[in-house]
């Protein structure tokens, strides 16, 4: 096992070929010692009887074919975990970078994990209040969901993600019963254990620092674990970063009963790292040069979220990805949305109007919302309100486009009502402060107030009984 | 066995072994010390490529490969229904028990069917009978909904020497057949290779619709029993919701639902919901007629490729009993991607977008296994197998290879439209893009079973919707005022069709399922509204708003909530109301006309 091979024949990009080897297995971890004595990690991508293709997790700078030693470690990439991991900061390949000691592991876990048996899953249906109206009412986040933020360069996805991490909480039974939000002070500390895990892949130092500061400000850093691979860190290391984060998440959630929120940013950089390795291996590319197995690879990350029968903890995943050219049909957002349970779409148009958070109902979706809205979860009128607001806003936007061509004066009275609704919806419902934490009940009230703009006979998506009960009389 | 096959190369799910001279194509092999399940997919002299259905991390060259001699097969016998399988027919519940964890660990052996469970077998055939392949030997009440027919396996037949009723496991001998002087024992368990279609008797042209209770499908774009349909749509357009509604409401006797490379939680949802949902016809839990197969996106990719074949073979088996079986595959794009991934690892020359060149023939081969037919056996029973495949085109672009190859072989196209979901119009099936090529084949059925003018009404309904899309363009340019009253009426009626007929609330207990007869009456009421309105608005200077404000329109809006029972009478009332209110308009319309016309007449 500890044989060091000095038989490196080729080095190309992040790949290395080692000949004359014996007993090497697929996906095995190896240690590469360069001539200068520095050590790097790698894994076996292709195991043959006399040759192994090794992918380094760091770049190959300074590596030589002669003199480089490769040691195969007889195990796959593992991370040592224990509850002490909370509050720590690691590099993208799992080394502590906060100056603290190494973790004394309770156990070591393979970072690739194993697929969760669909039979063992518990269907997630607990409402999480994020304090952001467009998410709570229209794209309800559910505990154990994987809900990505689709964004673009220059859009405030980091602020939104930080706001989510800060404000996410479940409602107390008392709140649901009374139909009223209770402030944090009155509610007191909840006895639920929760943790935030943050994996940064190829982001700038500033961005990584932003998250760290945000967590520090709210005192959440002691319940957080950070894995940071910044833009100047090795590209291929990024392939391991989210897996490290999710392995820790699974440990905390399913073995230690934590409710874990995992923030992954930026998935686009992750996919590009994957493409780089694929290209170096000269694989047949799929769309836009991304490997044909991109879907499967992403699925092995995103599917590591959810709840499991008989376990108290949960993993809620919020991946962030920037869409190249805001193009939602680009393979990365496209394949992501086919795996995740919806998406939160951050819209440049709204952002340019100065609206924060620029989350647009069209294109945003939470697939798990039906079972987390309504009686016993939030309030009985929730799902009707959701459908009505979305439909009315869609119509309002359509009318707005029409008005550009025909002029506002040629619109019918009803159309004008929808137009006014759309304006108010953007300014009063979507728009809120970066620290404004609205309870779901406040959000619903705003919704009802906005619906007064629309003629009552057009309110087809909400039940009459709720209209009678909640619609403010003019 | 001097030449034990050994691994020479491992790359992801692809393993190459040497010493494979005696291996057959598509033979099941056990790979490495952990005995992972694999299938031979390529042979080059002494070397063979194996696709492995489990994770291969930690497997390396030098490890053994064991040949089993069998091709990848499913087990067919009582006990399939209510099961929840992975892509290679391992019960997921059993995997959980054996793994003792929520994770699917490797090398777990889990037989598809319980060997110890005893079933009450009731013989139908008797000793001395001549039996041929496919003949029914006896029955087992598999669930409260389905009577399992135990058949003579394909390729066998002869004189029945012995047969007995009683309590048996699936491996007990239930009958003995004498073939060419030799005795052959028959047990309930049959095995069938998943990549080979099960034989049938004569294939029949489909003539009956598969009712789904969804108005946009049943009325506008029906699928036939034994037909093949595709639901392509971008993410979030409602493919899975539509597939799940079909699994709930399609009036087939057996449902096979394949979650192929999709989300784990979705399968959990089905698994939780189906035992609680009632079959509309019998009141029994839906699960009693359902087989679920899940190979979620994070489960091994090779098993995903196999899952659709596992599913369709089970479906064929129930069709052979003479049942109407419906199969849903969500999503066939993931299946195609699994093929692409294996093909890439084999370094095959790629076709379009990296998909293998055989994508088209594999897709066609899969859908060709559907159909209505006479089953094997001398009793001329008939069965059908309908398949509905969801397609997930990247970026919602229907011109991509999987969608195109699917459309070439399926006759029904239900196009999901993300724009409709934004407007919260459900089911979000686009009525202009979708089509069904079965409407003619089914016409006879409709005019006999529903109403003479059913097909005529359907044609009119689609015409109105098409006119609407043209008129809308005009409106966008010049506004509603420029339209003639007749055109305005068309727009109004089209809106009624969209909002009151096509829109359907899957969460409302009455609205979720509409019988074809009620669909006909709903459609007829709307068309009657149009027909009676035409002469009214034709009057000069008639104020169109008055038609728009008719009270009866409210009744039409609420049509979808009329309970099935006694609905004929309710619809008669509504139709009377339409007629009388329109007549009222005509009279008063005539009055206003004479008053206002007088000065004009003198001029």
Short key terms for the protein model shown above:
heterodimer, A: 474 residues, alpha/beta, ten-stranded mixed β-sheet, seven-stranded antiparallel β-sheet, 22 strands, elongated, B: 603 residues, alpha+beta, six-stranded antiparallel β-sheet, 16 helices, 35% helix, globular, disordered C terminus
Give me a quick take on this structure.
Chain A is an alpha/beta fold. Chain A is built from 14 helices and 22 strands.
What distance separates the N and C termini of chain A?
80 Å
Main β-sheet of chain A: number of strands, strand sense, barrel status? 10 strands, mixed
User: Count of DSSP helices of chain A?
Assistant: 14
Helix content of chain A: 25-40%
Q: Extract low-pLDDT stretches of chain B.
A: 593-603
Low-confidence stretches of chain A: none
Total helix count of chain B? 16
Decide which structural class fits the backbone of chain A: alpha/beta
Please count the beta strands of chain B (DSSP E, at least 2 residues each): 26
If you compute it from the alpha carbons, what radius of gyration of chain A comes out, rounded to the nearest whole angstrom?
25 Å
Oligomerization category of the chains in this entry: heterodimer
Give the mean pLDDT of chain A. Answer: 91
Task: Count interface residues per chain for the largest interface.
Answer: A-B, 79 and 68 residues
Report mean pLDDT of chain B, rounded to a whole number: 90
The largest pleated sheet of chain B is described as:
10 strands, mixed
Distance between the termini of chain B: 112 Å
Explain what the structure shows:
The complex is a heterodimer of chains A (474) and B (603). With 474 residues, chain A is an alpha/beta fold. Helix content of chain A is 33%, strand content 22%. Chain A contains 14 helices and 22 strands. In chain A, strands 9, 11, 14, 16, 17, 18, 19, 20, 21 and 22 form a ten-stranded mixed sheet that branches. In chain A, strands 1-7-4-5-6-3-2 form a seven-stranded antiparallel sheet, with no helix packed on it. Chain A has a three-stranded antiparallel sheet with strand order 13-12-15, with no helix packed on it. In chain A, strand 4 and strand 5 form a beta hairpin. In chain A, helix 8 packs across helix 9. The radius of gyration of chain A is 25 Å and the shape is elongated. Chain A starts with a strand and ends with a helix. The model of chain A has no long low-confidence stretch (mean pLDDT 91). By secondary structure, chain B is an alpha+beta fold. Chain B has 16 helices and 26 strands. In chain B, helix 5 packs across helix 6, helix 7 packs parallel to helix 8 and helix 11 crosses helix 12. The longest helix of chain B has 36 residues. Chain B is globular. The C terminus of chain B is likely disordered. At the A-B interface, strand 5, strand 11, helix 8, helix 9 and helix 11 of A face strand 1, helix 1, helix 4 and helix 6 of B.
